[in-house]
Design goal:
Methane Monooxygenase Hydroxylase, Chain G, domain 1, about 0% strand
């Protein structure tokens, strides 16, 4: 695909994120894109597939967060059909989008799909992951924390959590702290390990500050 076409697709994608909330605005797409390029170069992946998949993976959120990967596939196909993109590339991009979601029955099979999956999850952890967790909390009227959040007790992930009682601390304990073990590429695991350690230190410090120990 020509560079000019790539720029046109990027500009078209931006329009879909014009009214997005901070947790899933176009800056999320840009960060996932950057991670895809970083990991893709390390893993010798098809960078053209990754460029398109990263740009288009969340475009369906304009229709809602639930099943957004399905809507993303529909819109991505419409956009790619406007350009001179070969069928094999389009097929792989669609698979990447279908399989990138954390809770999804479609598993990443291609190298590029595994990289997009890792990049998307990496943007949910580390310093940016904490920023996004607190931004989401603000969007949903959550408290910053509850003291019981810091207790060592199991959290039932089989049911949908009540976002009004949810807090960023629970989000960390229930989901974010587990993402480093979900990585599918070697480079993804290396990056995730560093980001995970940062989050550990942050939430440990947070608890100490809340208790007046720091």
């Amino acid at each position: 695909m020509k560079t000019g076409d790539h720029m046109k697709i990027e500009e078209e994608v931006k329009e879909y994120f014009r009214d997005s909330k901070p947790t899933h605005d176009f800056s999320h797409v840009e960060r996932v894109y950057a991670l895809c390029m970083r990991i893709g170069k390390k893993e010798n992946a098809d960078l053209e597939v990754l460029r398109l998949a990263a740009l288009l993976h969340d475009i369906g959120r304009i229709k809602g967060d639930e099943d957004h990967e399905i809507y993303s596939v529909e819109i991505a196909e419409e956009i790619m059909n406007k350009y001179n993109i070969d069928e094999k590339t389009k097929e792989n991009v669609i698979h990447c989008i279908k399989s990138h979601r954390y809770r999804n029955n479609t598993k990443p099979e291609t190298l590029e799909a595994k990289i997009l999956y890792d990049a998307d999850k990496l943007d949910a952890i580390g310093a940016i992951g904490i920023c996004r967790a607190y931004s989401f909390g603000g969007e949903n009227g959550q408290k910053l924390y509850r003291m019981e959040d810091f207790l060592d007790k199991g959290i039932d992930l089989t049911r949908k959590l009540d976002h009004k009682r949810h807090t960023p601390v629970i989000e960390y304990k229930a989901k974010l702290s587990k993402l480093k073990d979900k990585m599918l590429t070697e480079e993804g695991r290396r990056i995730a390990e560093k980001r995970h350690k940062f989050m550990e230190r942050f939430f440990q410090r947070l608890e100490r500050e809340i208790k007046g120990e720091e």
